[in-house]
Request: fold
Amino acid sequence: MPDNRRITRSHAERRDDKLATRERLVRAGLEAVLEAGWAATGVDKVLRSVGVPKGSFYYYFASKDEFGYALLESYQGFFLKRLERCFGTAADPGAAERPLSRQMADFLAESVDGMRRFEWRRGCLVGALGQELGGLHEGFRQRLETSLQAWEHVLADTIRRAQARGEIRPGLLAERLARGFWAAWEGAVLRARLARSPEPLARAVEDFTHLIHS
Amino acid sequence: MPDNRRITRSHAERRDDKLATRERLVRAGLEAVLEAGWAATGVDKVLRSVGVPKGSFYYYFASKDEFGYALLESYQGFFLKRLERCFGTAADPGAAERPLSRQMADFLAESVDGMRRFEWRRGCLVGALGQELGGLHEGFRQRLETSLQAWEHVLADTIRRAQARGEIRPGLLAERLARGFWAAWEGAVLRARLARSPEPLARAVEDFTHLIHS
Reply:
């Protein structure tokens, strides 16, 4: 009788190894693209930084585009978690029902920390890929739009809860406010990186706060 | 007696030819970088599109960075002219003293026309280079900051004129408003390109208008 259990475990181990290496490639890719952009990020350099043999890229990803989609998916997961921590969710009413001004202050603080940690060299993956690939590459364009729409949904829900608590002047549409905030935020991240300063981020939150309260 | 005049004219002609070709390279480079980004723009392809022999790039530019600086200088000239047309200058009081809402509407209309003309494939050079090179390349970072600061000066002057005409609610700092607008605008251009829609641009102007009037 062949030792099936052993073969099975060995398969699982290989699968786990593959996933772990894939995950390390995604992390290294995120760092590279956030700092230097998509076109400037060589797959070989990413492989080397993780100690994966040159030429084995296609064992992990079907194409460089698929690698980019994996980066975007990973970044989106990271960013949505940040939004959940700051804005709460329906399942986490403690965080969700704090005042919007507190929630935005938390989001600002996490974002400033995140950019300062890497000395303002890293911005936003959606902004970076959007600038480089948003014009000509339909696969990225659609995925980037989808990512931004998900941020909009989260923030619009947050704004609606604040509206229900009477924190926002009447007559404003939550979706419209959320969309405007993220556009302004993307520009502020770009500027913060150029200016190496948290000021543009703080100003974007201030302007938003003024817009909804005045 | 050597025909000095002929030699001189021939020098001048060669210089004019060189400048004309350089100008065509800058135009072709702008188109390429606005659509596909900096790292994806191959110098060879730009040369080919203008019919300049491969290998003669360094006759026109000392390096690819110098080429990039020339693109930025040309774009900045183009953009400051747009701002002058829309916002006026101290030397053009007719345009400068129109209501700020009219001036912003003109700026929005020109910008939407400009992006629609190229089917939303082209955004803003400062945004594009800022995303790709703003993190790691000090020469670009400083030049991009300088470009943005020039836009801020023009808009802040425009806002101060509107303040003097009593169009803006009291207590706002013109520089602060101008800086906030351009950050929001860069994000809106990114989003307009992704969404292939003028809506983000219109919303950025609307939010700004609300902020200064409410």
Notes: Chain A is about 75% helix and 0% strand.
